[in-house]
Amino acid sequence: MANPVIRSITATPSTLQPGQSAQVVIDAYDPDARTVTVTGRVTDVGGHVATATTTLTVGDPLKYELTTTDPAVTIVADPAAPGRFSVRV
Amino acid sequence: MATRTVTLTARLRDAAGNATTSTTTLTVQTPLALGWCPPQSSVTSVQAMLARYPRPRSMRLYSGAGAGLEPWSSGLLAQVPAGCAVHYSFKDWASATSPAAIRDWLSARPAARRQVVDLVTLDHEPEQQNGDDPTPAAYRQEWQELVAALAGHARRREVWLVPVFTEYYARRTATWWADFGAVSSYAGVDAVGFDIYDVGYERYRTPVERNDFALAQARRVGRPLVVPEWGIKRKPTLDSGAAYDPDGALCAQAMRDNMAHLRAQPDVPYVEWFYRGDCNLDATLTYPSGQTYVRDAERAAFVQLTA
Question: Is the pTM higher than 0.90?
Fold first, then answer.
């Protein structure tokens, strides 16, 4: 099992004044994940065939944490979007 | 406009416990906080100042020799609004007991104050050597013990340790750096402070003249400059007796010019006006000639500067 990989951490804005908040997004993936391609095939009575595919990613659920040692900073995770945080300075 | 860098650490774990970390930074631009020293370091004096200036961004308070450390829960420090940084100075230090006392003091800092960083000074203006100041060697030793005492404290980042010096003395004394100033280079010191007045000058100094030495000393060690005592005594006449600033208009302009200069610096986060003695902007004062005066022009400037 390999460690997760963080592609990037993006803070928007990255410069702010006391009391303001930035949104921080961690973009990451699990290198152990594999992709499964699923193909759907439909045939009518005349023998005509239609197909379509989609992919599924099979991987571990990742747990995201964002911390700082700065006591004046408050970090709140967005429950609707893993890897997204609000950071108030 | 001072800046500080906030480091954010991202940590990811998968279900098997494999983890990885990465960091990014935020830049926090903090406008210079102009505050005040109350006329006396007493609860009633702080409360009176808070009635005049109800939302200070910084406040300078101190405990004199023999007074120990002010508690957070009552007295002076309990008067400081949660969003106002306090620059607290104390004089007493004993190698056997003070390290534990200062650690306990930091541990007791109210959680409500975590939105600001407070500044702590041991033996401010040690150059005075007026009876309650340690010798230069003792001063350096006490500061070594202070920074060591708080190193590794879980809440260390909630305070800055700031040695504060006497600008006019330091500027004019060749041995100042070796005796006292070297403390500003110690590991664990967060900022360098100077108390700055226009003592010994016939006219008001320009902002550059007033601050260049202090800025140079802070930048010499790569740390911010703070000015916990800033005051300009009104100078009604020149040495010749000729009128210079009888109504305080020049002083008020000097105050505005000084703050404009300091606010333009990238590394000056805190300044406190010395609202005491001849710089008490609400007092009726007396010139050497015996004539009384009030500092209406200067007070108006201060109100404008702190608005």
Answer: no
